[in-house]
Design a protein that fits this description.
The complex is a heterodimer of chains A (166) and B (163). Chain A has 166 residues and is an alpha/beta fold. Chain A has three helices and nine strands; from the N terminus they run αββαββββαβββ.
Chain lengths: 166, 163
């Protein structure tokens, strides 16, 4: 199936969930977050779509005024087609349903995106930081991230205000 | 040498105990086997047959209790810094630290933007020898180890340190 055909199926099944976004390419589709678990279950199990492989989950920060996004790269082993699903979250309270129990690889992907962007995946059974230490402060890959000054008494930014660092 | 002359047989060595201790310590500094990043590959290459660290009496130990030298080979993240410190504290005296490569010495390429990288392992443990390079070749590491051996040899562990 081509990307356009996949999008047509989604539009037919979940007309309320589609979001127009001109910044995306034709291989990407933006959906609303509130129906995500239902949609994910459908596109995994539907025989025509059969997205049995979750290749990657990426966090995305669109900038100061823009939303945070989660992007899911899905692939079908059977039909050999791909689609990228984009879901936007508001910056103050970013959350979306977890698909960890649907595609098991999503467990670590979601933990990583949570670690770096602070997006909460509701229903995830073990949502902890995966790379940073548990007591780390802040979400490092957000554009407005400010590194912490010290960590357990160790200075983090040794020469932050040093001259000539442009 | 009047008193000592012709008194000993072949298997007796006469030396200053202080110097003898320095010599003994310097010729078998076993190193703590752990790597943090790509420098560890060069450290492994140094230990393997082509460069063969056992020529200079160095042998990898997997426990901090048995090791004399800690080679910090690679990028020390904040998460790892606490563990490096703990491992250093677990080593028995006398203990020495070699900072191998740019990352361990100063943070290396993560100097400016690496929010999670320790800017030099000397912020958490005392370092005896810094080996520059990214990563240093085995020859460079061996040079550093020989420098460390020189340093250990000149130590006088029994002599009282004057203030």
């Amino acid at each position: 199936m081509t990307s356009a055909e996949i999008k047509a199926v989604l539009e037919h099944q979940f007309p309320a969930a589609m979001v127009e976004n001109e910044d995306l390419t034709e291989k990407q589709v933006e959906l609303k977050g509130n129906q995500w678990l239902e949609i994910a279950t459908f596109i995994k199990n539907d025989p025509d779509l059969s997205f049995d492989q979750l290749e990657c989950i990426t966090g995305y920060d669109t900038g100061e005024d823009g939303p945070l996004q989660t992007r899911y790269n899905l692939h079908s082993m059977e039909h050999r087609h791909k689609i990228e699903v984009v879901i936007s979250h508001n910056r103050e309270n970013p959350n979306v349903a977890s698909i960890e129990q649907l595609w098991r690889i999503g467990d670590w992907f979601e933990r990583e995106t949570y670690d770096m962007f602070g997006i909460v995946y509701e229903g995830h059974r073990d949502l902890r930081r995966i790379l940073c230490p548990d007591d780390w402060e802040g979400w490092p890959l957000r554009k407005d991230y400010e590194g912490q000054e010290t960590y357990h008494g160790i200075v983090v930014q040794k020469m932050k205000e040093e001259e000539g660092w442009e | 040498m009047g008193v000592l002359e012709n008194k000993f047989q072949d298997n007796v060595i006469v030396a200053s105990l202080d110097k003898l201790l320095g010599w003994a310590r310097s010729t078998s500094p076993w190193y703590f086997q752990f790597g943090l990043a790509c420098c560890a590959i060069e450290m492994m290459a140094s230990a393997a047959s082509r460069h063969d660290l056992e020529r200079i009496g160095m042998m990898p130990r997997s426990s901090p209790r048995q090791a004399d030298v800690m080679i910090v080979a690679g990028t020390v993240t904040m998460k790892m810094a606490l563990r490096v410190k703990k491992l250093y504290e677990q080593m028995a005296d006398p203990k020495y630290v070699i900072s191998m490569g740019s990352c361990a010495t100063s943070g290396g390429p993560y100097w400016q933007h690496g929010y999670h990288v320790l800017k030099g392992v000397d912020l958490v443990v005392p370092v005896d020898v810094y080996v520059p390079g990214c990563p240093p070749r085995p020859e460079a590491l061996i040079e550093g180890l020989l420098k460390l051996q020189e340093k250990i040899q000149t130590e006088r562990p029994l002599t009282r340190k004057s203030a």
